[in-house]
Each structure stands twice: as structure tokens, then as C-alpha cells.
Specification:
The structure holds 2 protein chains of 2 kinds.
Chain A: E1 25-29, E2 34-37, E3 42-43, E4 47-50, E5 53-56, E6 60-65, E7 68-73, E8 85-94, E9 97-101, E10 108-111, H1 124-127, E11 133-142, E12 145-149, E13 156-158, E14 162-165, H2 171-175, H3 180-189, E15 192-195, E16 200-204, H4 208-223, H5 230-240
Parallel strand pairs in A: 3-7, 10-12
Antiparallel strand pairs in A: 1-6, 2-5, 4-5, 6-7, 8-9, 8-11, 9-10, 11-12, 11-13, 14-16, 15-16
Helix pairs in contact in A: 3-4, 3-5
Chain B: E1 17-21, E2 29-35, E3 38-49, E4 62-69, H1 84-97, E5 109-119, H2 124-138, E6 147-155, E7 158-161, H3 165-168, E8 176-184, E9 190-193, H4 201-228
Parallel strand pairs in B: 4-5
Antiparallel strand pairs in B: 1-2, 2-3, 3-5, 6-7, 6-8, 8-9
Helix pairs in contact in B: 1-2, 2-4
Classes of the chains: A alpha+beta, B alpha+beta.
Chain lengths: ~240, ~230
């Protein structure tokens, strides 16, 4: 079976390290804790400046790349961002589109114009019915909800395989730098894996054994997200299992 | 001044504390905090969509706190369900936690904080606030700081910290005074000041100083519990 790279390819923050040339300092910080002191440093995401100090505004791993200090969250609900690819489940069919649950604060809406071909109104549920799982891209986030888009490579209805959840903050690590980690898992297990930024992951393989192995591999990465050198550890794990 | 407390503690000595984060895997964030025999558990869910819709605030997210004693937490079984006391404590806890949380960027959402006391030996609301503070951080909610909380009290004329049930029921002389406070950990901002009893104004200042020092200790315990929760779990 072909290994299709069906994944969330977008601006993934370079969270995987261990093979870096730049030295990144990382430590676990709590809100209010001073990460570093000095006027030179620029506060990034989840971080603010208080006088001379750069203070954490979230619980997570502080990362210092050059002058920019930011927080990588290690827990918590998914915060939707434009252009993220997410997985969702259809919960309602409306006259002009579908309501999709993507595990966020608020439902997402997929307009009927996003379907690849023209669909008359009374045949909408033949294309996507309540309960179907789709992978879609977040097009915009307005006050009233999230708009989804589904025209794109690798997006669309997901059939077959099984789905499971991981904490959304682990997803960048699971994907790896430029998809390296997830590609390794796909190559080793021969499965189609679709990873949504909201933590939903769909695995479809030739056999249930291979699917379970892929799932275990992903859980292995998710648990060890704060350590370095994971790609090597992953290769070692595959040799053993 | 050698003050004799029923459990042998000094006036400025808190009960042994314990804290753990991540005890409820289903929740977005969760934590437990213990003052002596008082145990509080907090679970945080959110940000998520707020129902009923009329409570939604289009300019910010809101905190919704629910505090209660579990039936078996006290010697005389507490009837399940909200009481006037639990409603009041829920409200003041919400006011104690809100200033620390930055939720303007999540309009129309709610962050549900559930606090339950599994064993009550006085100081439940302050234990609840400490637990909720860790749970909120664990849930990845943007916060400018943790909230630390402790109950001051008086035995007749002497100030004591972290009263237990016997000391709370003291009724000799001026009687007992219950003075729970909460503050932003790394600042001088107090977010909870409640008084049940009598206290001269001069002693208020002294109490706040003692409490601030104790809160530093509590902050270290909260920090440690949060940091220890990373390390292979979840």
C-alpha cells in the first residue's frame, strides 16, 4: 500500500531539537516566574516584559531562541489558529453548509462551496453526513465561530482506520521539524496518518497490528515531548518493537 | 510570645502542605492542595463555549467557579447540593482568581473551575483557591501569575496562621476570628480579604505581612507541583 503523506503541513514551530546548531535554553516555567532578565530580550508568545525581567504568562516550556523568549505550552485546550489543519466531526447539516465539532470553544462551519464539486441542497448529506470525520483547514476565526475550508491537498472526508486523541500541545512534536517525525512513523508502520492541530489523529493501515503500532509510536512521542533527541529515540524504539 | 496551639504549632507555623497537579486526566487542568487534613481538589475545563448564551460576554471570556464540600468531607454529613455558603465561596473564589487570568482573547467562552473539598478541617476555601490556581495554570490558561491563599486567624488576642477546625471553634475571650486572604503570588495585590470576627486595624497590617510571607512558601509548593507534573505523564 502506498504511503500517502496526508498530514498537517503548515507553519509548524520548530519544536523538535537535539540536532540544533543554535543553543536553545528550555526550562519548565509557571505563570509569574521570571525566565530571564535583561533589556535585550524580546517577549514572544506567552511571555511579557515586566520592567527588566521577562516573565512567563503561561505554564509550559520556556524557549529562548536568540533574543526571543517564548512559551511552548505543554497542556491545555487547543487554541485555533488560521491555516491550522484540524480534524472534526460533522454534527449538523445546514442549508448552506455543515456544522463541525473541532474540540474548540465554539463550533466550526464548513460552507457548501468548499465541496470539490457542486452539490444540490438535498444531496448534501450524501457528501457529508452527521458523524463523518473530515480534515479541514481553518480559514478564519470570527467572533461567532470558526470557518473551515476543505479545498486543498490532503483535506476531505476521512474514511476507515481509527481515531484517537492526544493533547494538542504535543502535536508539533509529533509532526516534527518539517514532518520528519511523523514521516518516520509512517514509513515504519506503512500507515496513512492524518494529524490535526487540535489533537485528533486518524490512523489507517494495512492491518490492525500496524495501526496499533503507529498509535503506540505516537503516544511514545507525545509522552516525551519535553526531551531532546527524540528522533533518535524513536528510531531505537522501532528497532525494538 | 509562646502561644500554645492545640496541635503544638507556633503562631506563624502553617500545617504541613501537599500539592499535586494532573490528578484528573479528563480535565484540561487539575490539581490537589492540602493544608494538614483539609484536602481540596480542583478541575478546570476550558476555554469552551458558554451556555446559556445570555451569559456570554463578547469582549472577554469568563470564569465560572463552583465550590462545594462533598457530603463525606465533614463529620456531620453535608446534604448534597449548593448551599448559601458554597455559593458565596464560589463567588469570592471567582473574584480571587479573575485578576490573575488573561482571558480577554477568548470572547464568548467560559472557563469552568470545579473545586471540591474531600476532607474539611478548616481553611477549605483557601485550599480550594490554591488548588484552582494550579489547575488553571495546568490547563494552559494565560495567567499573569499564580494566586496563593491562606487563612489567618486569632486565638483571643493572638494572631495565628492556618487555623484548623478546633481553633476555628475557639470561643474563649474575644472568640475566634477567621481571616482568609488571597494574593497574587509575586505582587502585593490581594484578591481576597474576608473577615469573620473581630480584629483591631493595627493587627490587620501585621496579619497581611505574616500572610504574605506564608504565601511565598505556598507559591514554592505550587511551583514545584506544577513542574513535577511534567515528566512523562499525560
Amino acid at each position: 500500500m502506498k504511503n500517502e503523506i496526508n498530514e498537517a503541513h503548515e507553519a509548524v514551530e520548530t519544536n523538535s531539537n537535539g540536532n540544533d546548531s543554535e543553543s536553545k535554553e528550555r526550562k519548565v516555567v509557571v505563570p509569574g516566574e521570571v525566565i530571564v532578565s535583561g533589556e535585550d530580550f524580546l517577549p514572544g508568545e506567552g511571555v511579557a516584559r515586566k520592567g527588566d525581567d521577562v516573565v512567563a504568562m503561561k505554564f509550559g516550556l520556556s524557549e529562548q531562541v536568540g533574543r526571543v523568549v517564548k512559551i511552548i505550552p505543554l497542556s491545555g485546550a487547543y487554541v485555533p489558529r488560521r491555516n491550522n489543519v484540524v480534524l472534526g466531526r460533522v454534527i449538523d447539516v445546514l442549508y448552506n453548509g455543515w456544522l463541525v465539532d473541532v474540540d474548540c470553544s465554539g463550533n466550526a462551519f464548513l460552507p457548501v462551496a468548499e465541496s470539490p464539486r457542486f452539490i444540490p441542497q438535498n444531496e448534501m448529506d450524501q457528501f457529508l453526513a452527521i458523524g463523518d470525520v473530515i480534515s479541514a483547514k481553518i480559514w478564519s476565526i470570527k467572533g461567532r465561530g470558526i470557518d473551515l475550508a476543505m479545498k486543498g491537498r490532503g483535506l476531505g472526508k476521512l474514511e476507515g482506520g481509527f481515531m484517537f486523541l492526544v493533547n494538542p500541545s504535543r502535536v508539533p512534536r509529533i509532526i516534527g521539524r518539517e514532518g520528519s517525525m511523523i514521516k518516520l512513523i509512517k514509513d515504519e508502520t506503512g500507515c496513512n496518518i492524518t494529524v490535526g492541530q487540535n489533537g485528533w489523529i486518524c490512523v489507517k493501515g494495512e492491518s490492525t497490528d500496524k495501526e496499533i503500532k503507529a498509535r503506540n509510536a505516537i503516544k511514545f512521542v507525545a509522552d516525551k515531548v519535553h526531551l531532546g533527541g527524540l528522533t533518535d529515540q524513536m528510531e531505537a524504539w522501532f528497532k525494538k518493537n | 510570645m509562646t502561644l500554645k496551639r492545640s496541635d503544638g504549632r507556633k503562631a506563624n507555623e502553617m500545617r504541613p502542605m501537599k500539592a499535586k497537579v494532573g490528578i484528573i486526566p479528563n480535565a484540561d487542568g487539575s490539581a490537589m492542595f492540602q493544608f494538614g487534613k483539609t484536602v481540596a481538589i480542583a478541575a478546570v475545563y476550558g476555554p469552551r463555549k458558554l451556555h446559556p448564551q445570555h451569559m456570554q460576554n463578547p469582549s472577554t471570556g469568563i470564569l465560572r467557579v463552583n465550590y462545594d464540600l462533598l457530603s463525606f468531607s465533614v463529620e456531620d454529613r453535608k446534604r448534597p447540593g449548593p448551599s448559601r455558603r458554597s455559593q458565596e465561596i464560589s463567588k469570592v473564589t471567582e473574584w480571587a482568581l479573575s485578576p490573575a487570568v488573561n482571558i480577554k482573547e477568548f470572547p464568548n467562552t467560559v472557563i469552568d473551575v470545579q473545586i471540591y473539598i474531600t476532607q474539611a478541617d478548616a481553611g477549605t476555601r483557601v485550599a480550594g483557591i490554591n488548588a484552582a490556581s494550579m489547575a488553571l495554570a495546568h490547563a494552559g490558561i494565560p495567567m499573569r501569575d499564580l494566586v496563593t491563599s491562606v487563612a489567618m486567624g486569632k486565638l483571643d488576642k493572638d494572631l495565628i496562621i492556618d487555623v484548623n477546625k478546633d481553633e476555628e471553634d475557639w470561643d474563649v475571650g474575644l472568640g475566634a476570628t477567621d481571616f482568609p486572604i488571597a494574593k497574587i503570588a509575586n505582587s502585593d495585590e490581594f484578591t481576597l480579604l474576608q473577615l469573620d470576627g473581630k480584629i483591631p486595624p493595627k493587627q490587620v497590617k501585621e496579619s497581611l505581612e505574616i500572610a504574605s510571607k506564608a504565601c511565598k512558601e505556598i507559591y514554592e509548593i505550587q511551583k514545584k507541583a506544577l513542574k513535577e507534573s511534567i515528566g512523562g505523564d499525560e
